[in-house]
Write a structure and sequence with these properties.
601 residues; alpha/beta; ABC transporter transmembrane region fold; 2 domains; six-stranded mixed β-sheet; four-stranded antiparallel β-sheet; 21 helices; 9% strand; elongated; disordered N terminus
């Protein structure tokens, strides 16, 4: 898979970093444009809150000055108190508005990006999932997306609030006394320098936290789905110890982040308090000298307290922005991944024969240099075809290529007489029913699992498919029948039952091609014969490929292909291969002797 993202070195220097930032913002800017009216309404409510809060010190100034001059009265003070209460009520109402609008927007944005990630993942090919673990993908959808949501929600609010409040408060402070204002904001450059240094370290450390979370999530997932195997090997303590090690690493990484976060707030508070010290020292002298009134001094202190929040918000916003940027970069990397299987748009919908033609096919996996299939030339038309060979001979790889799970070169694989690279992926895959070596079942009912490919199928159609797959009788032994919940990864079913359930799912789709990649390996011989009889009656005039090394099953196919080290070494019927192929003859002799011994017992 080609990586088109700039390198970390590029991101830290010059123009490439600007391009990179534009790419990151490109993920969220369309959503901002789509909900701009909602955002503007929320911002307007936020600014109204700030303006009302800025009025309160002016009211306090008036009251204090009147008291100092001895011209105040109970009525006047009550009037000022009532005005403050009215402003407080308005502030709380408007706070609800901006929280609902902007925080709500951040949740909507989170939902839309999550849906985009999920849709993108579903379109990716097999090499993508070989590179990205499930834990890593889950970390992107959970932790990373949460960090982006916080940055675009509370981060946006805090940044706007801090900017407006700081400028407005400084403006009112300048109106009261210019020199005193300059003294109050004198420590701010120190805060800006510290924030810049700490933010760079925070970015690196938070990236490590997210990587550790991915590892821990993947470890948890793999442990839970393998819990029966772990119990069988009494590995509970060992796995718990490994999880404890990962957990401690995750905690240590978070503590390294917490150290940076723990420095930001005290530094911001210290900066504000130093400014307050200057104001008390020099402002008090100005009051004593009569250069400013007591009311001005009280108002000035109130505005300075309002300025402390923006100073503290600098560290918090820097933290949220760094977390959000780091997570957005990880999400961008995931969404930038491209499928090696290049899809094309559908054009005409002419009927196509269910025929595969392979011409000098040579195939290797993306992460491997050695080909697993070499110079394969064969035709697969209507009928039942068997594929046999030693372990690692390329049988499963052949099925994956036919199912269009991996890319192939031009002019090597044809479907219905057309090169597969000129056909939409859906056009080919919608013609294929696929039963893999390890059948995938979901934690749902038996009925829901069977009708996965046809959600609109009725109960009669589901039961018919189950009968042809020889699993109907097994299903009826469960108290709830087809409505039985089979648990995580089909824990209530045996291996053979899971395989036959997957086969029923493929038969229900009624597609012109059926690929069974050793999908009956866990089924006993008697049931295998019953399944094959169902296939014969169900799959007339269809192309069926069965990968198996069971002679009884292969003997019932129309034609058999023998693979050896990725090459086809023999093609023929059961009786022909017994005479012509040493591997097939040896396999036949061993299995026949085993059956004779079993019958003798």
């Amino acid at each position: 898979m080609k990586n088109t993202d700039p390198s970390p070195d590029q991101e830290q220097t010059g123009k490439p970093a600007a391009v990179r930032l534009a790419r990151l913002l490109g993920l969220v800017s369309p959503i901002f444009r789509q909900y701009q009216l909602r955002i503007l309404a929320g911002c307007a409510a936020l600014l109204a809150v700030d303006l009302l809060q800025l009025i309160i010190p002016r009211i306090l100034k008036r009251g204090v000055d009147d008291l100092a001059a001895g011209v105040s009265s109970d009525t006047a003070l009550l009037r000022l108190a009532g005005l403050i209460i009215f402003i407080a009520i308005c502030v709380n109402g408007l706070r609800f508005v901006w929280r609902y609008m902007i925080i709500g927007f951040s949740r909507i944005m989170e939902m839309l990006i999550r849906e985009r990630i999920f849709s993108h993942i579903l379109k990716m090919d097999a090499p993508f999932f070989e590179k990205h673990t499930t834990g890593d993908i889950m970390a992107h959808i959970s932790n990373d997306l949460s960090a982006v949501q916080m940055a675009c929600g509370m981060g946006l609010i805090a940044a706007m609030d801090a900017l407006f409040m700081s400028l407005a408060a400084i403006g009112f402070m300048l109106h009261i006394h210019v020199s005193l204002t300059l003294l109050a904001i004198l420590p701010m450059p120190f805060l800006a320098l510290c924030t810049r240094i700490l933010s760079g370290k925070l970015h690196q450390r938070f990236a490590t936290v997210q990587e550790q979370f991915s590892l821990m999530t993947e470890f948890t997932r793999s442990t839970l789905i393998s819990v029966r195997l772990i119990k069988a090997y009494t590995m509970e303590k060992f796995r718990a110890g490994e999880f404890d090690t990962l957990g401690k690493k995750y905690v240590r990484s978070n503590l390294r982040v917490a150290r940076i976060q723990g420095l930001m707030f005290p530094i911001a508070t210290l900066t504000g308090n130093i400014g307050m010290l200057f104001v008390l020292l020099f402002g008090g002298r100005l009051v004593i000298e009569g250069r400013i009134s007591m009311g001005d001094f009280v108002a000035f202190v109130s505005y300075l307290y309002m300025l402390v929040w923006p100073m503290m918000a600098v560290g918090w916003v820097a933290n949220l922005v760094q977390r959000g940027t780091t997570s957005l970069r990880r999400i961008h990397g995931l969404l930038s991944a491209t499928s090696t299987l290049q899809d094309i748009k559908a054009t005409e919908e002419t009927a196509m024969d269910p025929v595969f033609s392979l011409r000098s096919l040579t195939f290797s996996y993306p992460a491997s240099l050695e080909p697993v299939l070499t110079d394969i030339t064969l035709d697969l038309g209507p009928g039942i075809h068997g594929v046999a060979g030693r372990t690692g001979s390329g049988k499963s790889s052949l099925c994956k290529v036919l199912a269009r799970l991996y890319p192939v070169g031009d002019g090597q694989v044809f479907f219905g007489g057309r090169d597969v690279n000129t056909l939409p992926l859906d056009r080919i895959r919608s013609s294929i029913g696929y039963v893999g070596q390890e059948p995938i079942v979901f934690s749902d009912t038996i009925s829901a699992n069977i009708k996965l490919g046809r959600p609109d199928a009725d109960r009669d159609e589901i039961e018919t498919a189950a009968r042809h797959a020889a699993i109907h009788d097994d299903i009826m032994t469960f108290p709830d029948g087809y409505d039985t919940l089979i648990g995580e990864r089909g824990i209530k079913l045996s291996g053979g039952q899971r395989q036959r359930l997957a086969l029923a799912r493929a038969l229900l789709c009624d597609r012109p091609i059926l690929l069974i990649d050793d999908g009956l390996s866990a089924v006993d011989v008697a049931t295998e014969h019953e399944v094959f009889a169902g296939l014969r009656s169900q799959l007339q005039q269809k192309t069926v490929v069965i990968v198996s090394n069971r002679i009884k099953l292969l003997s019932m196919t129309d034609k058999i292909f023998i693979l050896e080290e990725g090459r086809i070494v023999s093609i023929g019927t059961h009786s022909q291969l017994i005479k012509e192929n040493a591997f097939y003859r040896t396999m036949y002799d061993k299995q026949m002797r085993r059956e004779e011994l079993q019958e003798a017992v």
